[in-house]
Amino acid sequence: MKRLPVKSLVRISFIAALSIAILVGLTSSAKEYSLSTVLAKSVVILVGILVLSLYNVGVQLWLSRRWNYSSWQFKLYRAIASFSGALLFNFLCFRMVLSTNLHTFVIPDWYEQVRNKTVWPLLFMLHGTVFNIFVLMVHNYIILVHAKNDAELENARLKFANTEAINQLLRQQIHPHFLFNALNTLKALIRRHPEKAEEYLIHLSDFLRASISKGHKNIISLRDEIKLSVDYLEMQKMRAGEALKFSIDIDQQALSNRWLPAFSLQPLLENAIKHNVLTNEDPLYLDVIQEGDYLKVMNNLQVKHQTEASTGSGLMNLSERYKMLTGEDILIEDDGRTFTVKIKILQHAGSDYRG
């Protein structure tokens, strides 16, 4: 949950306080108390629980600016501040009640049966603690409902962004320009290097098959994403020759137990090839390097003066997907000589990737 639902907490605080005040009024009426006694009890209970509830909202709002709601620090300090404040508030209320005529309305009749009246404040504060537990339970329920709604909304946004990414990739794959280049390269290889033509066809087949078969997934293994990217790079290498050089340095253990958003690496490689000049004299160097929990895609800059038509949405789409998945953005560095994009490697394939 990104933010505390303050308005909902304040609203439920009023509703809960009013509901308990009405309940107290009805039970007091059943005991045949006078109307003034019933009203006094209800008003005192209403004000007391409302102040207690709003105090808890204020505590949670203050703590949420420092820690995430699900963190242990938030829960610990919330409990300490909530019950400490509740005890202090109820003790002060008890002293105020004793010093006014309110004690005849607020203090239950059975208190009179307790011979040791020093126990009264403890009993009074026990009632307040019970009310405070009730308030916290109600607030927890509201927060959990909002967290669930936020998660469902975020999942819906992620599915939409992922669908857009997959659709964009599939449109590129069947785009006449893409197929024209692929078939032209294949035709040239068949004439000059039949053995390379077969290899090219295998890479093209694997690339298209993986793109379609994994197109419905949000997350795929690092191994599958690397395989997809290698197929793409090998095809481009056969087309560009010595004008394109690439290297991939990944921990072999990470290949089997680490994950990436589907089609997050290949578009970065494609962007580098699309927007830079490739010549034998000045090759484009593409490096994919693992740095801890990140994957770094780096290329030397030799930008084309005229680039192919592009929507410019590739990096934006990837950035949006990473924000929703991990709460972090992709990292982009441009020092004028090299262009680098760093993306986080996910630790598992579950539904919650925030660390």
Give the topology.
Layout: H1 6-30, H2 35-64, H3 72-98, H4 103-106, H5 120-173, H6 176-192, H7 194-213, E1 219-221, H8 222-240, E2 244-249, H9 252-257, E3 259-261, H10 266-275, E4 284-291, E5 294-300, H11 314-326, E6 331-334, E7 338-344
Parallel strand pairs: 2-4
Antiparallel strand pairs: 1-3, 4-5, 5-7, 6-7
Tell me briefly what this model is:
By secondary structure, the protein is an alpha+beta fold.
According to DSSP, the number of beta strands is 7
Strands in their spatial order, largest beta sheet: 2-4-5-7-6
- Gyration radius from CA atoms, angstroms: 33 Å
Helix content: 55-70%
Q: How many structural domains does the protein architecture include?
A: 2
Q: What is the name of the CATH architecture of the largest domain?
A: 2-Layer Sandwich
CATH class of the largest domain: Alpha Beta
